[in-house]
Amino acid sequence: MNSILAIITARGGSKRIPRKNIKDFCGIPIISYPINTALDSKLFQNVMVSTDDLEIKRISENFGAEVPFLRSSKNSDDFATTADVILEVLETYEKQFGRKFEYACCIYPTSPLLKKDLLAKALELLETKNADSVFPIIRYSSPIQRALIENADGFIEMIQPENRQVRSQDLHPAFFDAGQFYFLNVNTFMIKRKLWTERSIGLEISDLEAQDIDNESDWKIAELKYKLLYSK
Q1: Any idea where the domains of the chain sit in the sequence?
Q2: What positions belong to coiled-coil segments (predicted)?
């Protein structure tokens, strides 16, 4: 059996939504959703939370996650990247516990819409395609080749005017990162130290299945999506 680690990244600081990672979402702390999804998936030998915050540690442990060590102050500020945090976790597991993992899945704490089946599909792709990473993506609803900008004079113009008369169906679809998780091959991640590379695979999901949560309006939209998906 492959050794697989789930890493849920949840620092204490949050400027736009205070205490965002443990704020109640449909009645329970939002971080409990990815913890439960990771545990229910049965994919991971360990489900851990990387945090610098004792309250987040306590809540995470109450919902079944491990918090075997606290995140360093260096990787708890606004400038630390997700890759920095993952690297610290993997290196600490090896140094403190002699544990090495073949795969790791970094899951964001504000991913209440994430489904365990998607994690399983991502792992399958990672293994069968020998990819560096797999992560969910969402298709742009309109062709980005027809994107508009406002010029210096305040008038609207196309970024790629050569696509003005091209039919939408003839333009290559484009996607954006859904911002839920990254399933990683640990060996290649330790070398390249990137969440996605030239050997990464996108797993397409609908825009109903994910929601960026950066403000209170986003939060309400995410709760509405959750109720639509899980009303049963």
Answers
A1: 4-139+174-230
A2: none
Buried b (16+ CB within 10 A) or exposed e, 60-89: beebebebebebeeebbeeebeebebbebb
- Region of 26 please: left (phi>0), alpha (psi -120 to 50) or beta: left
pTM: 0.94
Query: pLDDT digit string (tens) for 136-149?
Result: 999 999 999 999 99
- Spatial neighbors of 22 by CB under 8 A, at least 6 apart, are 10, 29, 30, 31, 55, 56, 59
Q: Which fold has domain 4-139+174-230?
A: Spore Coat Polysaccharide Biosynthesis Protein SpsA; Chain A (3.90.550)
Contacts of 93 (CB under 8 A, 6+ apart): 5, 68, 99, 100, 101
